[in-house]
Amino acid sequence: MTTYKMSRLLAVVGIASGTALAGLLSLSPIALADGPQQIALTAADLSFTPNSIQMVVGQPVQLTITNLGQLDHDVKSDIPISQLTYVQADNDPQEQVDNAAQGVLDVDFDKGDTSTVTFVPTTAGTYSFQCDQPGHADAGMKGTFVVTDGASGSQGLTADNGDAAASS
Hints:
The chain has 168 residues and is an alpha+beta fold. It has 2 domains: 32 residues; 132 residues, Cupredoxins -  blue copper proteins (Immunoglobulin-like), CATH 2.60.40. It is built from 3 helices and 10 strands, in the order H-H-E-E-E-E-E-E-H-E-E-E-E.
C-alpha cells in the first residue's frame, strides 16, 4: 500500500472515529448518569415535601421517604413504572411482592420510619401521588410526579390519577 493510500485510509478512519465520538458526546446527561436519581421525600402529618418531583423516562429512581409525623402514612400513585424493588418499607412482604409484580407504587412508612424503593418510570406525563390513609389526601397530603421523556423534556399527556387513592 502506498503512503498516499495509507494516509487516505487513516483520514477516513479518523473521521469515522470522530463522528462516533461526537455521537457519544451528544447523548443526554441521563444516558450517561451513574446510578439512580436520588429523591428524598419527607412526610409530616398531612403534607409531603417536596410536593412536586421531576423524573425522566428510563432513568432509575431511588425514592427515600422519611416520616417525621406522629401518624403512619404511605405514598400511592398509578405512575407507570417497572423494576420496582423495596429496599426498606413497612408494607407486608407479600404486598411488596404483589406490587412489584404489578408495577404498583405503594410504599408504607410508619411514624418515625424511613422507607426506600427503587423503580424506573416508563411513561412521560404528570401523575398524582398521595397518602391513602383515610382523610389524609383530602387534608392536603398529596403531590405530583412530573415525568419527562428526557430527550426533549416533554411531559407527554397529563394523567389524571385521582383514582390512585383507592385503599391498598
